Structures are given as structure tokens and as C-alpha cells.
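Q: How would the C-alpha cells look for this protein?
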Amino acid sequence: MAVDSGESAFPESGPGPGRHDLFINVLGASFSITAGEDPQYLNDVLEQYRLAIANTQGISGMKDPLKVAILTGFLLCDEINKLKLQAEEEQVAAEKAIDRVASLVLHLDKGIERAHLTNG
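A: Here is the predicted structure in C-alpha cell form.
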């Protein structure tokens, strides 16, 4: 089955319920893996990897499949780490905002309580 032709990367018969075979054909290597993920998701991941390979080849000019695969993996790990750092920074900012809102609510509650005691 040729993946590059736009055909599904999944053979007609799978390995069992909830498990799917994915045929991978990239950088001159062809093999199958079995995964418990949705077939469409796996096809999407494979397409994303193909685009990452093309990007790596475009920016590096490399043609050697092993070097391209290694550099692509490295660049993807770099992207994952940057996204993790961004998520952590956003989490810290969100926690600070929550603390600030809680402090403002407490301040308002105290103000309302004083107003009731003074007018009450």
C-alpha cells in the first residue's frame, strides 16, 4: 500500500478491536506499527511528521535520510519544550490573576461588611 498516493495508511484488516496498524513510508523507510489510537488521528500525526520532514529539508538543505530524521526529531523536541515553557508561564500568570481576583473579592467583602456595620 502506498501512503504517498493519498491512500489510507491502514491495511484492510487490523490487529484487533481498538488497535490499528499504521503503515509508515518516509525517508525511504517503510514499516508498520500497531497503536491503540484513532486511525484518523494517526494519519494526521503521520502527515504532520511528513510536513516537519519537508520543512527540515527545506531549511537545512540536507538530503541524507538519517540526518533529516534526527534533525527533524530534534526540532520537534525543541518545539515541544518551548510549548511546555509557554504553558507553564501561562499557568503562573493565571494563578497570579486568580490570586489577585481573590484578594479583590476579599477586600470588597470587608468593605461591604464595614458599610453594613456602620449603617446597620
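The CA atoms of residues 97 and 103 lie 10 Å apart.

The first strand starts at residue 20 and ends at 26.

Upvote if useful.
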